Amino acid sequence: MKNIKNIDNGFRRCYSYSYPAARHSGYEGKPKARPITEESMWRNLTIVFAMVFWLSVGKDAVVHGSDYPAPRYPQTPKVQRPEDLLDVARVLVKRPSTGQGAFPGYAIKPGERALIVVSTLHDRLIYEAIAMAIREAGARADLFIGQAPDLKGEGAEEPKLFLYMYAGDKNIERMSAGGLTFDQVAKMAELGDYDILIAGFGGPKPPTPHFRWEEIPWLTVDTFMAGLATFPFELQAAIDRKAWDLLSRARRIRVTDPEGTDVSWTVPPNLFGSKINNPGHLMAIPDGYFGEKPNLAGVIAGTINHTGAFPHIKVHVKSNRIERIEGGGSYGEGWQAVLKKYESTHWPGHPGPGFGWVHECAIGTNPKAGRPVNVTQLPTGTVWERRRSGVIHWGIGVHLSLERGPLRSFIEEKGVPDGHFHVHNNFPTMILETEGGEKITFIDKGRLTVLDDPSIRDLAARFSDPDQLLKEAWIPPVPGINIEGDYFKDYATSPLPWIAREGHKQPAKD
Ligand SMILES: [Fe+2]
What we know:
Layout: H1 4-18, H2 20-27, H3 38-57, H4 86-94, E1 113-119, H5 124-136, E2 140-146, H6 158-162, H7 171-176, H8 182-191, E3 196-199, E4 212-214, H9 221-224, H10 233-247, E5 250-256, E6 262-266, E7 281-283, E8 297-304, E9 309-318, E10 321-327, H11 329-341, E11 357-364, E12 392-397, H12 406-414, E13 420-425, E14 429-434, E15 439-444, E16 447-448, H13 454-461, H14 466-469, H15 487-492, H16 495-502
Parallel strand pairs: 1-2, 1-3, 3-4
Antiparallel strand pairs: 5-6, 5-14, 6-8, 7-11, 8-9, 9-10, 11-12, 12-13, 14-15, 15-16
Helix pairs in contact: 1-2, 1-3, 4-5
Bound molecules: fe (ii) ion.
Fe (ii) ion (FE2) binds at residues 281, 360, 362, 393, 395.
C-alpha cells in the first residue's frame, strides 16, 4: 500500500523548511515553465537527494510502506444469551489447569466447587456461560461480582493502576477481581473450601496450596470468542516451548518497531535456562535481572499501555535506566513526575537510584488474543492484546516485589511504589544474535516466526487448518504503518479518539 499522504507531507515540509524559495516556484504557487539548464538540473537533483535523505532518516523511525500486515479483526456472531457461548466455555472447563494466566484451563472434575470472582467490567454472558459449563460438568459454581475501581479507558490512567502494584492500593488486582485484592479473594476461596478460584486477568498470585487458581481474562464477548479460549492446549505448549528454546540461544537482542522503538541489550550464557519463564508472556529480560553491567540502550516508543492509548511517547534508555522522556501527553507528564519524585530513592536489587528501570520485555505467544471492540470505554481494555503472539510490552519502573525479601521490606517500610509503567509494540521485529553470530528473526513485523515453523504447523494440522489456526485474530490498523495516512498527524498525536472512531472500522483483509 503506497503511503501517498505521508510522502506528500514530507514533500511539503521539505520544501517549506529547507528550500523556502521553492515553495513559491512550484509547489504551493502556480507552476511556471522554466528552461532546463545544467545549473537548474543539478539544483533539482540536490533537492531530490535531500528529500530522499530526509524521508529516510528525518522522521523518527516511522517506517512507511506496505510490508506490515493488513488490519484484521475477529468476526464475532451476534450473541445474546450465555448458552450461545457454551461451546467455548465447555472447552475451557475441560482444558488442563496449569496456573498460566495467559492460557487458562479449569480442568473441572465432578463434585468440585468453583468460586468465580469477576468485576463489573466483565460481560455477564461470559461468566454465566462458564458457570453453566462448570455445572454441566457435575461441579458447583458460585459467583462473586464486585465493583471495579472507577477509571477511564485511556493510557493516562496507568499511574493510578501500576504505581503501587503489590503494596499500597493494589488497584490493578481490584480491577480484575471484583474490587478485592488477590489476598482477599484467596482468603475467600480458602474459607469457602473451594477447589478452584477463577479470578483475575494478570499479574502474579499469592501461593494457594489448598486450591488451584485460574484467570478469567476476557472482559468482552468478542475477545472471548476470538479463539484463545478454544485454542488447543498441546499446540500452545509447543509454541511456548519452541519460542523459549530459540530465545534462550540469544546472546544479543535487538527490537525495532515502526512506531520508533530501537533498543538492544546483551544476554550472558545460560541466563534463561530451560524452564520457560512465564509461558504466554515470555520474558526476554528475566525479571529482576540487570547484569553486572546493565547495557540495555536505545529508545522505547509507542502509543499504547495497559490502560489504553496516549499521545506518542519516546522513552530514551541507557544502561537499562530512563535518561529522558519525550511526549506521551498526560501519561508522559505523570511518568516524569514520578521519576522526579523518586530520583534519589535506591530500591534494593536495582543498579542505582531512581524509578525508571527497564526490567520487562515480555512477548505474547497466542495468535488469538486481541483488542476489544469497545476498548476506549473499557478501563484496562488494552491489557489483553499484549497476549497476542509477537506483541511486546515493556515494563519500566521497579521490578516485581511479590516475594518476601529486602526489596519487599524496603517498599513496605518506606511506603515507596513497587510498580512499573508500560509501552506496547504491536509491530516489532526482534532479532536474536547467538553465540556463534547467527541472526534469528524471532519476531518479524509483529509475526512470531515460530508460528511458521514446520513442526508447529504439522501439530496445528492435527486440530484444524493450520493457516487459520495460526493466523492472528487481531491486527490493529495504524495510519502510516499498515493503512494509508500520516502516522503522527492522523494517529499518534492523539490516538485515543482515532481508535474510538476508527479502531475496528478500517477495512480488514479478512
Ligand atoms: Fe507483563
